[in-house]
Amino acid sequence: NVGQVQLENYTKRSKKEFDHFTQVSAPKLVKHLLAVLDNLERALSSAEATDDKGKIIEGVKLIYHQFKEALEKEGLKTIDPAGDRFDPYFHEAIMQVESDEHEDNTVVEVFQKGYLINDHLLRPA
Question: Which of 21, 56, 82, 116 could form a cystine bridge with 77, CB 3.0-4.6 A?
């Protein structure tokens, strides 16, 4: 019975800590992303006012880098394993191909990048 009470207390404490963490971290991330949202709105307005495809593409690239930087500040890291040895923890195989150019168990092509958040797997590549 003592063990069950300790487990219940641990569960309650863990939930409380997790809830506190999300209440603190979510606004921080959203604040970073508000600047991205503002720039997207400006880019849409500019795109409607111009036919210069080059300027539109350059604006989208800048916003992409700003968005990526905001996520990286929160601990996001990209997994792009092309040419690396296959690791089932970080990679998800879609198919196997025969290749004289690569060693066995080598990632030949990446269809979708994977991501880590604070060194924990978020999505395999």
Answer: 116
In the chain, the number of structural domains is 2
d(CA 17, CA 20) in angstroms, rounded, equals: 5
pLDDT in tens, the chain (125 residues): 777 877 788 788 877 777 666 666 677 778 888 888 999 999 888 888 888 889 889 989 999 999 999 999 888 999 988 878 888 888 888 888 887 777 877 888 888 899 998 889 989 98
Residue type, 9: N
30 and 47 both lie in a single domain: yes
Q: Which tokens belong to 46?
A: 């500019």
Distance CA 14, CA 22 (A): 12
